[in-house]
User: What shape does this take?
Amino acid sequence: MAVINSIDDRLTHPQAAAEVTGSPVYEVVKVITIGAGDDDTSKFFIAELPAEVVLDEITLETPAITAGTAYDVGLYDTDGVVITGKVDCFAANLDLSNVTGLPTGPLGDPIRQAMTAVALADANKKLYEHAGHVNKALPASGETQKKAKYRIGLTADTIGSGAGTIVARVKYRKMSA
Assistant: This one.
């Protein structure tokens, strides 16, 4: 096998270098309380962010939630309506009832990665791109113009029978338009 030495053009081009280096990372922390009487399909909003941000990480730190076997993490508009087909664009069917083998988060409870549905090739996409929207003055037929902001939501497909507290964290970078 050959030795490869490569450099990404974005590292040397001053306008694009912020995509690779030098962007501050911001974090939103949201405490979500799950009630024992909450119903399946309940939605909990973690953050409302500008369309231009790039997500670095979404995590959920929580002890086991009895029978809470299917939670999705996806995109909603600012009115709380799911973006079509994006209810689980970041994570699907996260099992919050099982904590076996999970690492411990900063608060001492098990922590789960909640961007498991994002492909490596999509790691640097802006939030509106995850929504399948475009940034054009005149979108083509079938395209949807990006919104100013989006909400990241946690949807409980199977909420479980026990109460619990989830500490959700979203780490992101602000990118220029």
In short: The CA atoms of residues 64 and 98 lie 6 Å apart. The two ends are 40 Å apart (CA to CA). The chain is about 5% helix and 35% strand. The longest helix spans residues 9-12.
